[in-house]
Fold this sequence. Notes:
By secondary structure, this protein is of the alpha/beta class. It has a single domain (3-272), classed as Alpha-Beta Barrel (TIM Barrel). The chain contains nine helices and ten strands. The chain has helices at residues 16-23, 45-57, 78-97, 115-129, 155-165, 177-182, 190-200, 235-247, 261-272; strands at 3-6, 27-30, 62-66, 102-105, 138-142, 170-176, 206-210, 213-214, 225-226, 251-254. The strands form two sheets. The protein has an eight-stranded parallel β-barrel, surrounded by five helices. Strands 8-9 form a two-stranded antiparallel ribbon. Helix 3 (78-97) crosses helix 4 (115-129) and helix 4 crosses helix 5. The mean pLDDT is 95.
Amino acid sequence: MFIGAHISIAGGIQNAPRRAFGLGCEAMQIFTRSPRGGKAPEFTPEICQEFKALSGKFKLQNTYIHTPYYINFASSDNKIRYGSINIIRDELERGSLINAKYIITHLGSAKGMTHNESIEKVIEALAKTLENYSGKTKLLLENSAGAGEIVGSSLADLKIIIDGVANNFIAGICLDTQHSFVSGYDWRDFEKTLTRIDKELGLKNIKLIHANDSKTDFNSKRDRHEHIGFGKIGKVAFKNIVSFAQKNNIDLILETEHDKVTEDIKLLKSFRK
């Protein structure tokens, strides 16, 4: 398993591998477009080749792409929902051009519909996204922190969605430790939490972990990342999380602020040893 962080693509994606190496990353996560909106930068053959060559030079084992924040498969507004479908499909195609392993996406927020209706909307949209897709890059669904009417804080719901789409291009989930902690999965009681996750989701469906400590309390439903060991989850829990990831060949990606992300990476690597 490899350890890395989310890396800026300022100036072009070809600049990300060097930045990742400078922070001590063995893998990295990037955006390929602005997470807030706007047209995606073009991936020319030259840019893609340079990115892949530099990823090799700096020994980055895996690249992951996080989708923009505005994705909403559960929206009752068809313009938003079909826009999300088009963006995710485009991200999968772009990921295939640069040999990204997975695209990671949140599912969106459901307003004005029942819980079951929102799940059905998401299943329908994901099925449409993957229609006739045959690229190299696969899709991971990320669990949410559980605020408001956001879909995906329950791992059992993610399992229903994965099974409902029934497409091999959905590889499983990206499990965010902070989001899961604030939505009711207590990593401090590690074995109990792991047993619960296995029952709801199946541990085999965890393909990537976002390793983030939490500024906010257990079950608070608030998305606030903290540096490893400085939050409410704590170092002991992360030692267990690293051990689990290592046994199952699951990469860890940090989404903490870059002021101390190098320390976070070093700490996780020390737990791995």
